[in-house]
Amino acid sequence: MPNVFSYTDYRKFLSDWYQGKKKANQGFSYRIIANKVGFKSAGLFTMILKGKTNISIPLALRFADYIKLKKRETEYFQYMVLFNQARTHDEKKGYFEKMTTYKESAVRIIKSSQYAFYEKWYHSAIRAILDFYPFAGDYRVLSRMLNPPIQAEEARKSIELQENLGLIKKGPDGTYHPAESLISTGQDVQSMILNNSIIASLRKAKEAIDIFPKEKREHSCLTLGISQKGLDEIKQELKEFRRRVMEIAYRDSADTVYQFSLQIFPLSRSYRKRPKQ
To answer: What is the domain count for the chain?
Structure first.
């Protein structure tokens, strides 16, 4: 049986468990699972694995009982179900935090490293500063280069975290520089981790309106009606625009770190016009 603590997606766990059972016994089937766990249609298990339907906590507990998960494994499996099916970012983050409390779980690694990087706005800012500032260990100066400034101890911990992650490295001259390494996470937690970063960025954007004069910032927004086709075209244009912005930054000789954000999201429900009779 696969180790439940190695997963953050209960559907992936159930799929791997089923494949293992099927490999050991070719007669094992979805219908057997339906009979043992207690749901009418064998096709429901397929829908669960494909993400087309969710499972309730009572059903999750019946799965855990049939799979013969131990008490702590059952608790973790239950939190994993709640994490995967949470509707809001705060709910998802809350259940993820509970999953990290199990010392056996793989997500503890994410919590202590990759996850931590996206929790604070200044980690990515410091990494960008190192691209043009010859930092060699003066954390007080580094901390004051940020706007708003942070504590010197926070700057020290940020450098330590990023060095451990391989995001920065010390050169022969004793100064730190960004490394080519990128953070990678499992697909099942990637959206939540990136949402943490987006939320932090939006908070900073709000603060920037009061902190910086207009010539140092650009805030604008549009409210417009579009179809799904129009949305897809705009998203593609935004991707191309981001690429061009990165090319400009690559060619430029930097002296300041900026936060650049783009958002587009619905403000209404969709309405389909009735065809004319």
So the answer is: 1
Strands 176-178 and 168-170: antiparallel
- What does the pLDDT look like over 35-87, one tens digit per residue? 999 988 889 999 999 999 999 999 999 999 999 999 999 999 999 999 999 98
Annotate 140-162 with b (16+ C-beta within 10 A) or e (fewer).
eebbebbbeebeeebbebbbebb
For the beta carbon of residue 34, count every other beta carbon within 10 angstroms.
Answer: 16
E strands present in the chain: 168-170, 176-178
Nearest to 102 by CA among 7, 1, 2: 7
| 31 residue type, one letter | R
Asked whether residue 39 is assigned to any structural domain, the reply reads yes
Cα→Cα distances 61→55, 78, 184, Å: 10, 7, 32
Range of the domain at 59: 4-101
Tokens standing for 265? 């999201």
In a domain, 165, yes or no: no
In a domain, 250, yes or no: no
